[in-house]
Amino acid sequence: MIVDRQGRRFRNLRVSLTAACNYACTYCVPDGKRLVAAQDELSADALVRGVAYLIEAAGIERLRITGGEPLVSPRLDAFVRGIGSLGLKDIGLTTNGQLLARKLPLLLDAGIKRLNVSLDTLDAEAFRRIARGGDLATVLEGLEAARDAGMRIKLNMVPLRGQNLDQVLPMLAYCLERGFELRFIELMRMGHLSKPGAGFAQQFVGMPELLELIAAHYDYVQADAPLDATALRYEIPGAGTFGIIANESVPFCRTCSRLRLSSTGWLHGCLSSSNRHYVGDLLDKPRHQALPALQGLLVKALADKQEIAFAGGVTVMKIIGG
Ligand code: SAM
Fold first, then answer.
1. CB–CB of 16/263 below 8 Å?
2. CATH code for position 105
3. Which residues, other chains included, contact 285 with Cβ-Cβ below 8 Å and sequence gap of 6+?
4. Which SUPFAM superfamilies does its entry note (predicted)?
5. Alpha helix locations (H) across the chain?
6. Which of 69, 136, 158 for a ligand 1 pocket mutation test, highest count of atoms within 8 Å of Cβ?
């Protein structure tokens, strides 16, 4: 097992199935153009082999499928079927929910029971302004269908000053009514937001302000979370739970166990580092040749992790998988 001086190791893998996305969220894509798939995206077979090799070489236990938007990928079907037999403890998927109703039978059939759905507002006009793609009603229909099918659902919301702060309480009420866990993600200085003057500070809303907004309407207590969880969790007794991924206010780098594999075959050990390590060529090699080389690259990827706090990065979330 590869472990660093702080005792960190890779346990959780995120695979970006494609860089393509049917949204162009303002904080993710600066020019508003929706993304297309990269020319050199790996086949589903190669990505499944990547997961299998990383389970062995790094001790990966849990997998999250992401993107881009994973549900737009033509590789989704083969990939979810391929990873089902790898013995992972947990498989989840992060999606914007636009194609959720349509893809639900496939996800259920592949044994996926946990979804994180990104939704920044319940206001149709604000939705159009922030996501710059898709349709709110379609997402809400997908969420109802997934809930009826017994999926465990978390909603991810990025609070943005001047754009959706009025939605914090309506989103929380919506989630509590349906048994969804709402998770607020503090805005990260990634991609264009890492550049000075890009408006990060003006849009950023931190955990203390969120908790104050919530405290005006709900009593809550801090709840348990796994040691390497990114979210701080809170319970509203008798009503449900919510979480805050407070990458700026309460950095979680010291316990981070995440590794990312991009759709084009690059390993990323840290969201806040622009270092990446190419493994695409190794995934065509047999196990006995691939694993030693992979282990060398994993040592480098682990060394890319920040010591204490997230410092921002030029890498764009949609490319490496949020
Ligand atoms: N398309 C999928 C989705 O919408 O969930 C998966 C990819 S998306 C990049 C994953 C998550 O990253 C979303 O919840 C999105 O809101 C979040 N995200 C993207 N850029 C971000 C940023 N700069 N700060 C915080 N969250 C960000």
1. yes
2. 3.20.20.70
3. 293
4. Radical SAM enzymes
5. 44-58, 76-83, 100-109, 124-131, 136-148, 168-178, 200-203, 207-215, 287-303, 317-320
6. 158
Range of the domain at 215: 12-320
Q: Verify whether ligand 1 is closer than 6 Å to residue 232 (CB atom).
A: no
Q: Is residue 4 domain-resident? A: no
From the CB of 16, is ligand 1 less than 6 Å away?
no
pLDDT digits (tens, 9 = 90+) for 185-229: 999 998 889 888 889 999 999 999 999 999 999 999 999 888 778
Nearest CA to ligand 1 atom 2: 95
Residue nearest to atom 13 of ligand 1 (CA): 118
The string of pLDDT tens digits covering residues 36-82 is 888 899 999 999 999 999 999 999 999 999 999 999 999 999 999 99
Whether 145 maps to a domain, the answer reads yes
The Å distance, Cα 96 to ligand 1 centre, comes to 9
Evaluate: CB of 318 within 6 angstroms of ligand 1. yes
96 touches 117 (CB < 8 A): yes
In a domain, 2, yes or no: no
pTM of the model: 0.95
Q: Is 21 in the pocket of ligand 1 (CB under 6 A)?
A: yes
Residue 200 Cα to ligand 1 middle (Å):
15
Rounded to the nearest angstrom, the distance between the alpha carbon of 287 and the centre of ligand 1 is 33
Q: What are phi and psi of 5, to 5 degrees?
A: -65, -25
In a domain, 197, yes or no: yes
Q: Count structural domains, the chain.
A: 1
